[in-house]
Amino acid sequence: MSQLYYGVAYYDEYMPEERLENDISMMLDAGINVVRIAESTWSTLEPQEGEYNFWHIDRVLDAMHRSGIHVIIGTPTYAIPAWLASKHPEVMVTTASGQQKYGRRQIMDIVSPVFLRYAENIIRVLLEHVQHHPAIIGYQLDNETKHYDNVGPQMRQQFIRSLQQRYPDIRQMNQDFGLDYWSNRIDNWQDFPPPESTINASLGSAFAAFQRQKVTDYLAWQSGIVAEYKQPEQFITHNFDFEWRGYSYGIQPRVDHFAAAEALTIAGVDIYHPSQQQLTGREIAFGGAVTRGLKQGANYLVLETQAQGFAQWTPFPGQLRLQAFSHIASGAKMVAYWHWHSIHNSFETYWKGLLSHDFSANPTYLEAKTIGADFARLSDTLDSLRQENEVAILISNQAMEAFNWFKPGDAQTNVYNDIFRRFYDALYDANIGVDIINDVDQRSARYRVIVVPALYAADDALLNRINRYIEAGGQALIGFKSGFSDQHVKVRSERQPGVLNQSCRVSYSQFVLPQQVGLYSCSDLQLDPDEPVDLWMELLTADDDARVQVLARYQHPAWGEYAAITEAEYGAGKALYLGFLAGKPLITRLVERLSGKTAAQQFPLITRQVVNKAGNRLMFCFNYSATAARLSLPQAAEEVLQGGSVNAGEEVCLAPWGVHIYQFTPGD
Amino acid sequence: MSQLYYGVAYYDEYMPEERLENDISMMLDAGINVVRIAESTWSTLEPQEGEYNFWHIDRVLDAMHRSGIHVIIGTPTYAIPAWLASKHPEVMVTTASGQQKYGRRQIMDIVSPVFLRYAENIIRVLLEHVQHHPAIIGYQLDNETKHYDNVGPQMRQQFIRSLQQRYPDIRQMNQDFGLDYWSNRIDNWQDFPPPESTINASLGSAFAAFQRQKVTDYLAWQSGIVAEYKQPEQFITHNFDFEWRGYSYGIQPRVDHFAAAEALTIAGVDIYHPSQQQLTGREIAFGGAVTRGLKQGANYLVLETQAQGFAQWTPFPGQLRLQAFSHIASGAKMVAYWHWHSIHNSFETYWKGLLSHDFSANPTYLEAKTIGADFARLSDTLDSLRQENEVAILISNQAMEAFNWFKPGDAQTNVYNDIFRRFYDALYDANIGVDIINDVDQRSARYRVIVVPALYAADDALLNRINRYIEAGGQALIGFKSGFSDQHVKVRSERQPGVLNQSCRVSYSQFVLPQQVGLYSCSDLQLDPDEPVDLWMELLTADDDARVQVLARYQHPAWGEYAAITEAEYGAGKALYLGFLAGKPLITRLVERLSGKTAAQQFPLITRQVVNKAGNRLMFCFNYSATAARLSLPQAAEEVLQGGSVNAGEEVCLAPWGVHIYQFTPGD
Amino acid sequence: MSQLYYGVAYYDEYMPEERLENDISMMLDAGINVVRIAESTWSTLEPQEGEYNFWHIDRVLDAMHRSGIHVIIGTPTYAIPAWLASKHPEVMVTTASGQQKYGRRQIMDIVSPVFLRYAENIIRVLLEHVQHHPAIIGYQLDNETKHYDNVGPQMRQQFIRSLQQRYPDIRQMNQDFGLDYWSNRIDNWQDFPPPESTINASLGSAFAAFQRQKVTDYLAWQSGIVAEYKQPEQFITHNFDFEWRGYSYGIQPRVDHFAAAEALTIAGVDIYHPSQQQLTGREIAFGGAVTRGLKQGANYLVLETQAQGFAQWTPFPGQLRLQAFSHIASGAKMVAYWHWHSIHNSFETYWKGLLSHDFSANPTYLEAKTIGADFARLSDTLDSLRQENEVAILISNQAMEAFNWFKPGDAQTNVYNDIFRRFYDALYDANIGVDIINDVDQRSARYRVIVVPALYAADDALLNRINRYIEAGGQALIGFKSGFSDQHVKVRSERQPGVLNQSCRVSYSQFVLPQQVGLYSCSDLQLDPDEPVDLWMELLTADDDARVQVLARYQHPAWGEYAAITEAEYGAGKALYLGFLAGKPLITRLVERLSGKTAAQQFPLITRQVVNKAGNRLMFCFNYSATAARLSLPQAAEEVLQGGSVNAGEEVCLAPWGVHIYQFTPGD
């Protein structure tokens, strides 16, 4: 695995005509060196129960191997065959709107023993058949696995059983979850009501956490099966996805990526993003940061991203290159397209692949050929890049779930992700390298700054670890609503922000929705005249303590006395508390205030600094705009894509949607 | 009951920690003299069938009594325990979208014999236990009872039985409801189709009326049970609510407040309203007027209103006082907050009480202390205030239901309430004191003006009583669509507006939606240049009769010949007919034209004139704005809140969101 | 049938009081010479199973006959009686949202043997009873029959059976529909999944076509029954309707009008349209063109259109006349209102008839009297008018269904109809007479121009016939997305637009959504500066062939090299290809470029040229605006409505919403 991979998903099964040799020839022209196969083809592999057909698998494996193209085998379980649904209707998932009907993928009950039995069988049969094939470099478990909003009887009973184990005394559960409210007490396990219709956020969040746990269990179970067959050098990965808003928008609420990734030997992901004038690289960067974080900063596989995709995604000239190298700069060691050829029937006809429906060499394919050539040429330089980021953002599925139970005002979206993206995008746009973490522990000391947005539900232990991080010299930007409730989504009855008051030295007992409100500075913090106060607004009071100062207050006839941003010394560190959702420039300024560093460029000119396996420092420069951009290099460097040397301070020009990669002269 | 009450709902059951003595101490500081308990705590009272637990009830009753705080006991029936739903799934209500799942409150079938049996038992057990406790001043039946869109088999069968009794000859029902249309005839009771899927507005409205009747019956049944236990001096009330649009917006369609109130000894209500910059007092006033009307003008209890409430409701300094005295000015003798402490789990965590989650003395609590002190000091002056309004608005559940079957154009809201609020708000803003009535009868003669908005469905008798009221010297402003259909929602085949043509002397057979249309005056009525014509527009023709004059016509190329507003003499009275939804200023002018009176002030400066039990005249002055306001007093008076005397004609100044109460010098 | 008919739907059953003689007298005054009865009155005819009541039918037939008014009998089957639903719940249709509850009309399962048995019985009983009555001129089968989204077990099983017959080898179905995708293969008929939840557009479109086929079968079955009873001179018709957007908007997706019309002796239709300021005549014209096309240009019946209709439709003075003569100009030989009297109960109370609820002579009725008089006077001149249009638009239910599976961007509407209306309206507004066709064959040679919008799914044979039409000298305007997929909705893997590339000499493999894009001309085609590029945008490349020229390209930084409109010579004809949705003026210019003709007037002044049965040429002139309009006559003519002669070149004036009909002097 010590090379850059350039890949596509390949479905011989979906072809309207014989294409294999033509396709491989076009792949080789484009530098494609890996294909992913099999992941949604159960019905072709096992057209009837117990009848197997390896025709497509075998011919693709053999042909790829002959051509030196590697293969990733996906277990075919994420789309079940019609005969299984027909024979065993109970394998269809039941959601709050009832049992689902056959048709879509990802509508099976992943805790159904019947489903698991059939799934195990097809995985074993397939792996038995292919396990010794030399083309195979690794396996993908299932695809974009989630719990599919499963509230079926199995899920429910297992959930109740898990609570029974956690709560030998049922009264403690009533206490933790506050079930007395609206007469929701449960004093007998057999009276447990349907968790999906509860109005109790504590119970509802516990159920959601359990549903995520079942995804973790399911992937671990598949991983265990695959491990029985795979060769030692073959990897096991999974294709994680993100909260979807027509593209990869934010943290996935239906899986705990960090927990589920433990079953993998390398993390994998799919990242889809706006394109054309809306191409910003933000999703590539945050998606990469999350996936890199799953295995302590290790490189990862982009198992799917768009080639042509939807009509609104058809890339402008240059964008496909820009995207590919943006993935690499984030730490990807594979960029693979979904998918090779556009599909002629069914649902994703307009989610186009690298080839259009006519299989001819279209402009996107022609641009891919330049990427494949660059990947091959620069594999040694660009494979296994290492990030050395000084800033991390703490995310939490638990906080997301709990916060989204209580969306401010009229919000309808996944508000946690709206907030996450506001913070993430601010730092991305300011060229501040960011890692994503899901815990604060001893390893966190390596970060100069940790940003904590909307950590709405957390146990005392995590909040105390944040305090300890600060005390030991760390710097934290703590966002509104953090610390508000405990791990049971019970609001703390101490003064808010609960345990974090210790480091932040600020408190509040009231909050409002911002309406016609501004900010004014009462410190050295510079504020723009129209600085937005969005979404939520806590009426903060700094502790009566010289170690905390108010940086800004609200400009408002009724709330003018309250603090909006405070800064506290705590031990050897510092804690900024932000009582509202700030605009991106202010977030940037606050993080820069903590880190003491300011980048020379900002969006749309994006720079990423990394270290390669030879120990050389590289700087990627991306122009995310339709107009040419200029920048001066801080030191002498060699441009590795087009070639040529640049002196320190020399100004270089990036074409619209252009990319440069500079390797700094060692010792310079 | 001869004092002002200042109260809170109190849930010892929901407390995350021991608080009782602390809470009582803070209550006493704030002048809280009544708490409401028990109303949603069935599962705590009866954690398993037949097992009872009075621990919370007893300790709260005893502690309150020791501190001199009164207690209202709510029957706990509006949120059922999980074990009841688990044991008897049939108690869950069935609506048009199916049988509801356990979780929310208010989802039981209030006509289910099983539910009624269990509900009766817990009421009797509770009352048996507490009935002699001296802290108790009264009982609240259930809470915000409605029919919960019940279309279950019991409701349906009882409805059909009621029709069988009403229609010994089924053919008459077919005739009254017009069931021949689209082959909907029913010639055999056993073929009666599901009423919830009917497309027949007559049948649908009859079913809705029956559903409301079942709420009336249910409350009367609970009242009967409570009456067996209560002491003679204890009251029976209910907490009515209103059509909800994120706050109390209009007349409640799912209860007939007037009919249901017959089971009560005193009316009660909850009123929630916009706050901060959107605080207007309108909901406090109309909600009070409705509730006052339920018992012929008697004082009522505000059993719930917001202290802090939602984030967007957190009151500006001064607003909590403004709200409290506005309730009193409307005739309330109790102002009670929902609720004492903010809840730490479940659904209403962000519906904050007087205390925040940290139980400390926040700014809202501190303001409440001033109210409690004023209530105590002024109880004699402000208790049992009497209104002497000269204008009444006639409302009708029947008309609302029928009209909303036929919403004009693209309207999606409860249009009847939109219209009601337009009329009500116009008069409120103009400081015209208004009562709400649900019938016109001999007692109505005391009103100088009756306003009749959208009385879409009414029997001949009511329309004739309106005519008689006018004939006898009353003045009426009759709104569009009044009189259009009969009590079966059968459109009248006489000329429109049916029976009201007699008094209004106007008719029409066509109507349109207003589009690019204005008004022009053809009388002494002053019209603004941009007077709006909203929602609906009847093409009126005045009778060929000298006793009717056209006040205004439509400005429109096609409809310019038609009258828009007419004025008719009828007997000793006068009838204005308004063929469209007018803007608030024009509505005000029309009512002032009838009453002959114009108030000196208008919104945001609101004045309310009342008489107290000593017979003194009081004037409340409310500044519903963020800027100071001035007014001159018509006569010498004493300001009772801050103290001090004012001479006739002297100008006084109200602070932003300020309130003054003037007691006029008798004889002055 | 050699006369003009002026009619109303008449429901003696719905009357709140005895009206028959009064009504007939008012009808005679208004020139009403035909009434349609019985079509929704099953429950009145058969109040209980096997009990029949002909009272209303008999008295209406007799009374009408005495007065010389003709009667159309509708079979009463489109609204079933409550007893049938009660006795046989399985007759209620099952849709994707479950089995429907009784209430609305048109919710029966038209493939249920039980329903068909009862329907056949009531049709036979009724026809047996009335068949010899001399008042009857014809029969209407059912009403607005559609498949009602039927996915019930009968529909599903019959569909699967039809596929079994079509596909003796199930593997061919998998291949045609591309079922391998997402593991949707079906290798055993008994595993066939619910067609309504499929995500496969090929399977979904095949099911929709089958549902439409069942409507065709149902009407043919009713026609067969009626034919057993009807007299030779009596007609059989059906009342087709259109895609509904609050009015008749476009092609009906739930019936194949052309196939279903084969069971009729004369086509019938209902057309409802915006009115007042929004009255344009467009729906009258396109609805007429579709209905005229069902029987190769023959005259048709407008069985329903609005008299007063909804409040927003109440006609301005003059509009009812304008509408009536617009129908006649399109080829109608009957204009009938739905309905005579406004209904006093139920659902359509505000869908008013010619009379309001008070049955008096309102302004709309008074205007109808002038129409009735003109129809009677001019029957000989205006009956059986013939169109001689040179332009046709090709429509396709198959293409609509398939295209709507893949709506561009965020589109939610029936996009096919949006496109159809853009093309149709452009030609209507430019006074280009248009026919609607659903195939191209030898008879198509009579058209100078055929317009082909969005022919997304079509077999090779149809595309080849289009090529042959052009080759033989025809001219075609081919719209974007035409030819893209085959009859199985499998995208072609040849270069796009597939077979049409042969005549259009243009191809593309990429397409985008238009965003900030314009057009620039690279030919003699004139373009406005702000010419819109809507909905979709194909990146076209003209073949390297002198016989094709690029007329316009896109103005866009990335796509400027691609063609937007091309023009090709092919054989003796010409093909314009339009790669995007153009604005109406550009569509008009392209059609005029092909036809070589430009009309002297344009909307709102609409002219229609026709030939009457005497062979005289007539020109209808319609002023669809609120301001008077002028035009010069091309030749001497006689105005037949008001009377009087006009010389060639003389200018005449049309009143607002006015209509003139000129008969040209033969030989002039």
Summarize the structure.
Chains A, B, C: Belongs to the glycosyl hydrolase 42 family. By secondary structure, chain A is α/β, with parallel strands linked by helices.
Supply the CATH superfamily name of the domain at 391-595 in chain A: Class I glutamine amidotransferase (GATase) domain
Label the CATH architecture of the domain at 391-595 in chain A: 3-Layer(aba) Sandwich
The profile of the biggest β sheet of chain A is: 8 strands, parallel, barrel
In CATH, the topology of the domain at 391-595 in chain A is named Rossmann fold
The whole-number mean of residue pLDDT values of chain A reads: 97
Helix content of chain A: 25-40%
Name the assembly state: homotrimer
Strand order across the largest sheet of chain A: 1-2-3-6-7-10-11-12
The radius of gyration of chain A is 26 Å
Morphology call of chain A = globular
Instruction: Please give the most extensive interface between any two protein chains, plus how many residues each contributes.
Output: A-B, 49 and 53 residues
Distance between the termini of chain A: 31 Å
Q: Which structural category do the helix and sheet elements of chain A fall into?
A: alpha/beta
Catalytic activity (chains A, B, C): Hydrolysis of terminal non-reducing beta-D-galactose residues in beta-D-galactosides
Family (chains A, B, C): Belongs to the glycosyl hydrolase 42 family.
Keywords (chains A, B, C): Glycosidase, Hydrolase, Metal-binding, Zinc
Domain Beta-galactosidase trimerisation (chains A, B, C): 390-597
